Amino acid sequence: MKHGKFITLEGIEGAGKSTVITTLVEALRARGIVVRQTREPGGTPLAERLRNLALERGSEVLSAEAETLIMFAARAVHLDNFVRAALAQGEWVICDRFTDATRAYQGGGRGVDLALIEQLARSVHRGLEPDLTLLLDLPVSVGLERARARRQATGETVSDRFESETRQFFERVRSSYLDVARKSPDRCRIIDASADTNSVSKAVLAELQDL
């Protein structure tokens, strides 16, 4: 049985990852490919509980380093209980965020030592890397406005620890994402997420052809 493909999507708030994932899943299933959709942090019951610890606002201080460790704990659980098994069965896995998010949010946004992040990545990944990473890139101002409009449309009144961050924080995150993508051109593709939905979908599907 052929080993499945691992595709990850990255981007700041409001980049439109959910819409793109739906497009990807439908296109792959139309070609007869078995696809599993998941997210990070999360993806399994235990990993989702760890996600809540990282995202929810609480009364205790959660340092940037502690946040990073929680992210990798959730990732280890996710990989060991979901992703590796699906790939081994020949299924394709589409994941909303992966370690590039940690590099961008905790590394670029929070200022966590990148050497620590890479050390944890080597230990948790154990050689597993995405076959393709799609970075949905757009100006921070556009992304935050989209995220605000989405929350209003869905009636959300409480934002998580990341959604409530400053514009400057997200500027650092975006810059870090772009830096990661430029350093890994064989794996990462930068998609202009400020374009209309149809154009973004076409650009994303075009990147699947090599896989």
Question: Overview of this structure, please?
Answer:
- The protein is of the alpha/beta class and about 210 residues long.
- It has one domain: 3-Layer(aba) Sandwich (Rossmann fold).
- The protein contains eight helices and five strands, in the order βαβααβααβααβα.
- The chain is globular.
Q: How is this fold's topology laid out?
A:
Layout: E1 6-10, H1 17-30, E2 35-39, H2 45-55, H3 64-88, E3 92-96, H4 99-109, H5 114-125, E4 132-137, H6 140-154, H7 167-183, E5 188-192, H8 197-207
Parallel strand pairs: 1-3, 1-4, 2-3, 4-5
Comma- or semicolon-separated keywords:
single chain; 211 residues; alpha/beta; 5-stranded parallel beta sheet; 5 strands; 55% helix; globular
From the helix content, strand content and strand pairing, which structural class follows? alpha/beta
Uncertain regions spanning at least 5 consecutive residues: none
* CATH fold type: Rossmann fold
Sketch the major β-sheet: 5 strands, parallel
Number of self-contained structural domains? 1
> How much is the average pLDDT?
93
CATH superfamily membership = P-loop containing nucleotide triphosphate hydrolases
CATH class equals Alpha Beta
Shape: globular
Distance between the termini: 16 Å
Order of helices and strands: EHEHHEHHEHHEH
Please bin the fraction of helical residues. Answer: 40-55%
Work out the radius of gyration: 17 Å
Q: State which percent range the strand residues make up.
A: 5-15%
CATH architectural name:
3-Layer(aba) Sandwich
